[in-house]
Write a structure and sequence with these properties.
The chain is mainly alpha-helical. The protein contains 6 helices and 2 strands.
Length: 119
């Protein structure tokens, strides 16, 4: 039921635009009051980002790029934090995006790398 200072909400800190992308159309209150919907949204986002990043996963999983070990779970975590476009840009340019709190997508690549997501 947490909403941060930027308006990101719930267990996984979703923004309204991401929910729209996933075609989840509910009120803020309905979203915050449904842990199952939040879990569904996270699973949907992981699948969506995996599809968008599949060629990078196929090409670089297990390799070190820009000093970071690339794994599927790390890339998907980074995409959740900064968007799949920022992950693609990181591959192309090495530019590291940070969120409003200063958290870098590469920190998510490291922290959440190496998990088997089963998706």
């Amino acid at each position: 039921d947490v909403v941060n200072r930027f308006g990101y909400m719930g267990r996984y800190q979703f923004g309204k635009s991401t929910l729209r992308t996933l075609k989840i159309k509910v009120t803020k209150e309905a979203f915050l009051n449904s842990p199952d919907l939040q879990d569904y949204a996270m699973h949907s986002l992981l699948c969506y980002n995996k599809k968008k990043l599949q060629k990078y996963i196929d090409s670089f999983d297990g390799q070190v790029v820009h000093g970071i070990l690339v794994t599927e779970s790390g890339l998907l975590a980074a995409a959740h934090l900064g968007g799949q476009g920022s992950v693609k840009k990181w591959f192309r340019t090495g530019k590291v995006r940070s969120d409003g709190n200063g958290v870098k997508i590469t920190s998510y690549m490291k922290k959440f790398g190496g998990y088997n997501l089963g998706i």
